[in-house]
Every structure is written in structure tokens, then in C-alpha cells.
Amino acid sequence: MSQKNISNFIIKESISLTDKYQLMILECTEEAKAFQDIKPGQFVQIRVDNSHHTFLRRPISINDVDIENRTLTLLIRKAGDGTKAICSLSQGDTLNLIWPLGNGFSVDITPASRIILMGGGVGVAPLLYLGKILRMYGLKPEFLLGAQSSDDLLLLEKFKEIGTVHISTDDGSLGEKGLVTRHSVLSTHIDKIYCCGPLPMMKGVAALCKSNNIDCEVSLENVMACGVGACLCCVEPTVKGNRCVCTEGPVFNINELLW
Amino acid sequence: MVDLSVKIGELNLQNPVLTASGTFGYGEEFSDFIDLNKLGGFIVKGTTLEPRQGNAYPRMVETPSGMLNAVGLQNKGVDYFIDTIYPRIKNYRTNIIVNVSGASIDDYIAVAEKLMPLPNIPAIEVNISCPNVKQGGMAFGTSPEGAAEVTRRLREVYKKTLIVKLSPNVTDISSIAKAVENVGADAISLVNTFMGMAIDVERRRPYLSTITGGLSGPAIRPIAVRMVWQAAHSVRIPVIGLGGIMNGRDALEFLMAGAKAIQIGTANFIDPAVTIKVVNELEDYCQRHGISDIKEIIGII
Ligand SMILES: Cc1cc2nc3c(=O)[nH]c(=O)nc-3n(C[C@H](O)[C@H](O)[C@H](O)COP(=O)(O)OP(=O)(O)OC[C@H]3O[C@@H](n4cnc5c(N)ncnc54)[C@H](O)[C@@H]3O)c2cc1C
Ligand SMILES: Cc1cc2nc3c(=O)[nH]c(=O)nc-3n(C[C@H](O)[C@H](O)[C@H](O)COP(=O)(O)O)c2cc1C
Ligand code: FES
User: Fold this and answer.
1) Which of A11, A161, B87, B102 is most buried, most CB within 10 Å of its CB?
2) Residue B221: which pLDDT band, with cuts at 50, 70 and 90?
3) Does the beta carbon of A225 lie under 8 angstroms from any beta carbon of chain B?
């Protein structure tokens, strides 16, 4: 398991993607070796200093890593007070992070595999760095991204730089119309699916993968307190009993889950 | 040099800072962030005779300046602790205390008897906030008789330092503190969590799977300080104070109210290095106020 750090990061850039989503690039102010150890699918716990209503840290996935420049990119949906307060900070402000946390996706895959990285809503966040790492290993990841409408598709250009992008929108404004779990690409041959998104979507994909014998990993978003395996608040029932999403997850193979 | 050392039963603590059970795992979860050897000691997760899966998710909800939890004592049982965890943590050079829970008095006794031979576990902390399954689920710790009964039976078998952790969900904490002192507890610690409840009004249902849960964090601190003060004025055995301590200033409140040592719980979730900061802040405070021994300020209120 990678060494965990508590560090201050300076906001280098904060970009409003839409009124609901913010992309933040954070630079580590402290000497830390951890950047090359970060695995795709890991997350950070952000301390929220500027919201009276927020007490605990907020878990956010690592969207991208720049090892050389020592930056992390986060993609944040303004869900409530905590995330709104984080997104309201500007360039030059400081954020305190515990990082990197969780297990991350497994990336030991046979070279010729057909891999789909499937995301819905802000769940696309961890798929970008995952795609980059898979590409680095010589694989050809394809993305399947779902959203309500074309306006809600995030970071589309960045995903296109890494691999083929399949799209579905609820209103049909881009790609296939309908649920992402019904997209036609899912009826072609696939060896492995990585999925992060709303629970109904992940459960839908899990069911599909089980019946078609596709290897599948999902990233869960159970509510957390500590993020380091100390409080046992974040557990998910698995074939081996209740397990911590923050340390033994957030990524689980669907065969481990009781879905 | 400030003398921060205190004594609890047979335990010599190099400083009064301990960690609260259930918020600090088995200590090792925090070894990336702090040097555990610099703590007065750490108290590990609630341990029961048999493995327990705990309550269903969701088990936690954030509330103003605090949180409600309903973890329900998830742990792999005392045998697993002894065989697997103890060998990993026993070499930390600080006091390791095991928090003991049970559904019956026999359960508590069985766990205590199994822990007693471990050379590097010098004390147990008995969580008497657990429901007494044999007696209608009322917590042992909510009546002086119940609290005294568990303590008396444990005292008969457990020869090392016996700390009894009191439930704050009672009308008269002094009578319970006296009851456990009278039957041989070496120390008491308080407070455990306050029973609370929160409702998701959009979904029209409670946030927790168990409906009610235990409130912790700074939201409870003034009530905890009051109860520690009351308890400390009722007994002669050492009192360990906790409830919402976030920094050295907060810890000092408990010490002045009469606690000989303190525990830090929920604050570890926000800052995993908070315990060491509190140790340093206590030392700074003493230096600033010309205090050479922290014991000078214990119980001054
Ligand atoms: C491992 C992990 C990775 C995550 N990665 C990201 C990410 O990359 N980007 C991102 O925007 N969000 C991510 N989340 C979700 C994010 O943590 C929550 O949206 C955030 O904690 C909400 O805090 P708040 O104070 O803004 O809202 P609150 O006021 O706490 O809640 C507002 C609403 O959001 C819901 N909510 C609260 N916590 C969660 C949660 N953990 N998951 C889903 N819904 C929640 C609440 O039920 C409520 O309806 C992640 C969560 C986890 C556990
Ligand atoms: C997630 C969680 C789990 C806990 N588990 C236990 C436990 O197993 N045994 C126990 O005696 N107290 C347990 N407690 C109570 C704490 O040890 C402590 O008494 C309480 O949280 C008040 O202190 P705080 O406000 O500093 O957290 C738990 C508290 C929390 C938040
Ligand atoms: S959030 Fe505390 S154990 Fe996972």
C-alpha cells in the first residue's frame, strides 16, 4: 500500500466546466515522493475550511496526475455545502489533502484485451488517469460515457485524446439516446469493463457483465468519515463480509460484491 | 522541560494524550502520519468475544460540528486480535489498551481473561454502553447497579489496570461513577457517544440504518466537560476525559475539569496527526504559563 500523506496543495487553476462542475489543478507545496506511486482510481480526502456546515473531509477521486509538475487534477460536482465551498476557492488558495487513498483499479491486463472504461456523470473522473495508464501499458482503452444531455458530458476532448469515445445521452442530444447500460457497444465482444458512476448504472453493468462473463471492476462512493480504515463507517457487504470502501476499495471486482 | 507524565492505575503515561476506541483503528492506520511511540497510549477498536459484522450501511451521517455513527462494534473477535493484530502492534513503545465490549457479563469476562496474559496490553477499557442482550437490551452502563455488576465481576478476574468507560446517556453520572469505583475500577473514562438521530427530509427517512446512533465531535464537548467535572468531583480514582477534543485548548478544558488524561476520537478523522499536535500544544501551554508539571493544572476547577 502506498504511503499516505497529509499535505497542503496550492490551487494552480480552477476551471468552471459548467455551473455544476469544477476542474481544479492542485500543486503540492511539500516535498513528496508519492506522485509516481498514485494508482488510477485512488482518491484524496479534502479538508473543508471555508464552510461552517462542513465538519468532515470530503472524498474526491484523482482525475489526473502530473508527476513532473507535482500536480493533481480533480473533477468536482457541486453536490452540497462542502463541494461548493471547495469549488468557490480560487487560484492561489490552499487546500489540505490526505492522499493518495484507496486501492485503485487493477491494471494487469493481457495486451490484446478489449477494454471499456464506462462512466456516468462525475463518475467519469477517475477514468481519465486510468485511461492514460492503460495506454502507457500499450493497451487501447475505449470509453463509454453517459450523461443526461450533451452539456453534461465532461472532459470529452481529453478522453478523445486517449481512445475511442462512445456516448449515450438520455435526451439523445449526442451519441445514442437512452441509458448508457443499453449502448450498442456493450453487445460487442468485451474482455473487461471498468465502471464508475451512479449506483443504478454500476449495478446495471454488473448484471450485464455477470451474464456475459465479462470481467468488471466498479468504483464505489460510500459515505466516509476517516478515509483511512479507522472508523468502519464506509463498509460495503462483500462475499468476505463487510469491507472498508476507503482502504479495500473504492474499486471492487463485481465478483466480490453481493449485487 | 515540562513534565507531562501522568499515572492511571498502574500505567505510566509519558503524556496525558490517548486515542478513543473506534476512531483510531489498531493504531497502525495512523503510522504514516504520526510516531505512535510519542503518544501516552492508544486504545484500539471495541473487541468482542465473537466476530461481529456490525450494523448495515449507512452507518454514519455528518451533523453540525459532529457526526452520528452506528458502526455497531464491527470487529473480528478477540482471538483474531490476539493471533493476528497483537503481534503486529505489540512492539510500539507506548501503552496499548484494548476496549472490551460484550452482550453479557460472561462475554466481558471471557474477553478480559484472554487479554490478561498479553504482556504488552497493560490495561483494558470496558465499554459498558453496550446493550445487555440477556436483560432486554438496556445498556449495562445506564444504571449504577448494572455498571457495578459488570465491573465487580471483571475485577474478580482481571488483575491489570481496569478502566471503565461510562455512557453519558444517564441522568446522574456521579452515582454511576461512584458505583464502579466502589467495586474496584482503577479508573473511569467518559464520555462515550450521546444517543442521537437525524432525518433526511427529502427522502423522508432516517440517515442511519439503525435510525439512532452515537453523536461525537465538538458538538458534544461542553456536555462532556460538564460530566467529566461532575465525575471527577465524585470519585478519587483517575478520570479520563473525552468528547469533541480537537486541539490542545480543548484538552486543557478536560484536564482543568479534573481529567488526569484525555482521549482524542473523531478529531483523528479530520486531522490524522492531531494527537501529536495536542501533545505539543500542551507542552507549549505549560511553558507559556510557567508550569513545570502538567499535574499542577489537573482539576483546578
Ligand atoms: C471514493 C470517492 C470518490 C469520489 N469522487 C468524487 C469525484 O471525483 N468528484 C465528485 O464530485 N464527487 C466525488 N465523490 C462524491 C463526493 O465525495 C460527495 O459528493 C461529497 O462528499 C458531497 O459533499 P457536500 O458537502 O458537497 O454535500 P453534502 O451536503 O454532504 O451532500 C449533498 C448531497 O450529496 C450526497 N452525497 C454525500 N456524500 C456522498 C457520496 N460520498 N457519494 C455520493 N453522494 C453523496 C448527499 O446524500 C446529498 O444528497 C466521491 C466519493 C467517494 C466516496
Ligand atoms: C466511528 C466511531 C466508532 C466508535 N467505536 C467505539 C467502540 O468500539 N467502543 C467505545 O467504547 N467507543 C467507541 N466510540 C466512541 C469514542 O471512543 C468516543 O467515546 C466518542 O466518539 C466521543 O469522543 P470524540 O468526540 O472525541 O469522538 C466510537 C466513536 C466513533 C465516532
Ligand atoms: S471511512 Fe473510515 S473506515 Fe472507511
Assistant:
1) B102
2) very high
3) yes
